Amino acid sequence: MAIITLTTDYGHKDHFVGAIKGAIYSALNDIRIVDISHDISPFNIHECAYILKNSYKNFPSGTIHIIGIDAEKTIENQHIVVLVDGHYFIGANNGVICLITSEIKPDKIVEIQIPNTVQSSFQELDVFVTVACHIARGGVLDVIGKPYSALKDLKEFSPRITDNGNTIIGSVIYIDNYGNVVSNIQKSLFEAYRKGRPYELVARNKKINKIHQKYSDIINFDLEKNQRKGPGDLLALFNSSDYIELAIYKSDLNTVGGASTLLGLDFRDTIMVHFL
Known about the structure:
The protein has 276 residues and is α+β, with helices and mostly antiparallel strands. It has six helices and 16 strands. The protein has helices at residues 16-27, 45-53, 96-100, 123-136, 187-194, 259-263, and strands spanning 2-8, 31-37, 64-68, 79-84, 87-92, 108-112, 145-147, 160-162, 167-175, 181-186, 199-203, 206-208, 211-212, 234-238, 243-248, 270-275. Strands 8, 9, 10, 11, 12, 13, 14, 15 and 16 form a nine-stranded mixed β-sheet that branches. It is elongated and about 65 Å long. It starts with a strand and ends with a strand.
């Protein structure tokens, strides 16, 4: 049974998610649809890429991923299908797919060109569903498009190395449900420039000199409970996707706040690593 996933900024109030699912089920009897997220911040390319990049790998090879973010077709925002790492990604050429494929070379890219396609404000339904169902039936990409190579690149939002390799300047790319702040600095980049040196992680007026592997590493269980760090304390860690993340241990964004609110950090804000 083929799998089609949906990642969008639609939210759950409107009819869009239901319409897409209904159209897929009307076209295919034997299909499974999985919602990855419909709570992407509107038009947030980096947030979408982060969520999809770190979830698609857990799906079986051959899974088809519909990306409903900034999907209206223009001369600068073409509709494309990319086959990479055994997965099909259907979306607009707005930078999302380039961020997803930043470490893996695509096997095939086509620009979608389906004759007599309705040009509407809901092209995920009118175009992407048609393409996804074609692939799910075993159809080849050459039938629905022509070869394409000009993936939109968003390199300006990559970490920068300065000070002769002694500083990494990164940015906030995602804030999760707990208010944890995810940077675009990956563990591989950090270790490549660290070279065994001590370091200092700087965010706003906070400085951290240790990056943990998991949240509870902040607790020294050899100490008495009243002497330990714990809930409410700030920590840094390499998260499950190997990005540097700032968190308040056992925080609640809706009550006491999380790292994003307590540190005053938002999307695109700067996080730096200084090697000493």
